[in-house]
């Protein structure tokens, strides 16, 4: 299956892309997709995005098809063919409603 990852700000600078297409086996989760990105882009991305315990830093917002994973199954949210995972950096002010303007 193929899915896209939209990235912003510093992650965009690290990856040199605003949208990344990844391919993986079926039954992949948001957590698995993050691991794939870290494998593809290495320590610079992993150090920026992840805590030492291997989990994403809590300031980042992850959305699948425009819906926060907090409203779904968190990092265990499954991804399907043609889904779009967005990784938004820490923001000052605003709301998730405002973030929908990115999509």
Overall average pLDDT: 89
What distance separates the N and C termini? 22 Å
Low-confidence stretches: 97-101
Q: Tell me which CATH architecture applies here.
A: Roll
Topology order in helix (H) and strand (E) letters: EHEEHEEEEH
Number of helices: 3
Beta-strand content estimate: 25-35%
CATH class: Alpha Beta
Sheet with the most strands, sense and barrel status:
5 strands, mixed
Q: What is the CATH T-level topology? A: Ubiquitin-like (UB roll)
Structural class: alpha+beta
Rounded to an integer in angstroms, the radius of gyration calculated over CA atoms is: 13 Å
Q: Numbering strands along the chain, what is their spatial order in the largest sheet?
A: 2-1-7-4-5
Gross geometry: globular
Blueprint of the fold:
Blueprint: E1 2-7, H1 9-15, E2 19-23, E3 28-29, H2 30-49, E4 61-64, E5 67-68, E6 78-79, E7 84-88, H3 96-99
Parallel strand pairs: 1-7
Antiparallel strand pairs: 1-2, 3-6, 4-5, 4-7
Question: How does this model look, in words?
Answer:
The strands form two sheets. The chain has a five-stranded mixed beta sheet. Strands 3-6 form a two-stranded antiparallel sheet. The C terminus is likely disordered. It is globular. It has three helices and seven strands. With 103 residues, it is α+β, with helices and mostly antiparallel strands. The chain has one domain: Beta-grasp domain (Ubiquitin-like (UB roll), Roll), CATH 3.10.20.
């Amino acid at each position: 299956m193929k899915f896209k990852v939209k990235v912003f700000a510093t992650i965009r600078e690290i990856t040199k892309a605003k949208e990344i297409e990844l391919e993986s086996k079926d039954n992949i989760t948001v957590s698995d997709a993050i691991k794939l990105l870290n494998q593809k882009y290495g320590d610079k991305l992993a150090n920026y995005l992840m805590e030492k315990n291997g989990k994403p830093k809590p300031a980042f917002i992850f959305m699948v098809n425009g819906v926060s994973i907090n409203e779904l199954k968190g990092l265990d949210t499954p991804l399907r063919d043609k889904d779009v995972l967005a990784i938004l950096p820490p923001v000052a002010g605003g709301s998730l409603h405002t973030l929908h303007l990115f999509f």
